[in-house]
Amino acid sequence: MKTSVGIEALAIAVPRRYIELEDLARARGVDPEKFTIGLGCRRMAVAEPGEDSVALAATAARRLIKTSGLAPERIGMLIVGTETGVDHAKPIASHVQGLLGLPRAMRVYDTTHACYGGTAALHAACEWIASGAARGRAALVVCADIARYGCNTPGEPTQGAGAVALLVSDAPRLLAIDLGISGASSRDVYDFWRPHGRREALVDGHYSIECYLEALAGAYREWRALALAAGLIENGADALPSARLERVLYHVPFGKMARKAHAHLRRVDLEDMRGGRLDAAAEAAEAQAAAQSFARQVASSLRLCAEVGNIYTGSLYLGLAGVLDAEAAALAGRRIGLFSYGSGCCAEFFSGVVGAEAERAIRAARLAETLAARERIDVAEYERIMDLPPDRPLEEEPPPGGFRFAGVREGRRLYVAGPEAPADAARERRGGVAVGAGV
Ligand code: HMG
User: pLDDT tens, 235-249?
Assistant: First the structure.
């Protein structure tokens, strides 16, 4: 049984275009502060038909193999977590295997449970390695999605698209997962769903927030009991159990949700410690304490999410990329908490320890460079892209190092590969990501 298992390296892929949420608010006749402050959203990636879930997943995986120096023969498992698949039977993972020319001696499949699919894949990979069944090999886990609610809907400002590829191994340079210390909460609810044949998700927005918070409480309580019993955190009078975590990362459908989630997490701790609801004085003190705690424990994880919007399965891991990009050196050896929520619903709270080499490993991902290569578009262009039929992509060259969907022939999807990205050394970046502060 391997005891040190987790994320060795990561890479992201995002559509080449984005809009500013302030532009969208003005076009919709909404006060821009509703989107930027009320929802905590800043920018939103806009996927063209050529940038489907397969193209995004394969691009992120190709980038990960290149930037981490991963030898393909080391990979023994490839799982894609997604809720925006392109076929009812053939998984995105098999497209990725083919496009990247990966070896055949491996398990290849997709996992689907709304935004939880990526976390399901991560845990399956960790447990496969920890059990010894991997025989020293690593797993490639890719989370890829296009969040689409449609124009002029309440969900419109909470769209986005992108992919996060994770190399999972017994050399977890970025994050060693606390194996077996995790809490799950699931329930049969209709908070968000996408019937067959629809491109846009249907959502009962305010109810979905309630479901998220309820699942957070259940999953966190189970994690907390296990973490206290294992001595990973302490239950002292000087701090809440959740405050013992150096950072807490949440699934981020929109930035404000992480703020609501963190306030709820603290309330669960406080009410459980007191054995009941807070009185007026305690409420006032907690409002201030929660804001300070959010700034310390959560804010840095929202930096990349605020650039891209909701990417469903990859959202939590985009948060991880953001926090490590901002402060990997300071967090080395420290424990962080992670909360994954998938509508429908299934949620999991788990934790891990940031690796001593995390800063070097995250620099290799060149996150700033990926985001800086994007182009801002106006709302008219965004609306034109939203109206394009999904099976007739623009005839554009795929980007260097990337892939594009190229159309359907006899029911089969075709993809084209871009040329190799320029040499690593010439593109080595310096400093952190120049992005907004999120909420
Ligand atoms: P809405 O009803 O248009 O917004 O849609 P609202 O009226 O609730 O306002 C939002 C916030 O803005 C409120 O703040 C307002 O007060 C504030 P809050 O009370 O919540 O703190 N506000 C303003 N602030 C500043 N200046 C102003 C102003 N006006 C109002 N002028 C909703 C919001 C989130 C419901 C909608 O966008 C939606 O349906 N989004 C999609 C669903 C979603 O993201 N749900 C999240 C939980 S479920 C989940 O995370 C899973 C998911 O990722 C899918 C999966 O699992 O696959 C979605």
Answer: 877 789 999 999 999
Distance 213 CA to ligand 1 centre (A): 13
Q: Closest Cα to residue 76, out of 112, 104, 100?
A: 104
Residue nearest to atom 11 of ligand 1 (CA): 38
Contact (CB, 8 A) for 60 and 11? yes
Rg (CA), the chain: 21
For ligand 1, is residue 210 a contact (CB within 6 Å)?
A: no
Question: What residues does 184 pair with on adjacent strands?
Answer: 348
Cβ-proximal residues to 224 (8 Å cutoff; 6+ apart), any chain: 183, 233, 241, 242, 269
Output the CA 155–ligand 1 centroid distance in Å.
8
Prediction pTM value: 0.95
Mutational pocket test of ligand 1: of 208, 312, 439, the residue with most ligand atoms within 8 Å of the beta carbon: 208
pLDDT digits 0-9 by tens, 216-239: 999 999 999 999 999 999 887 778
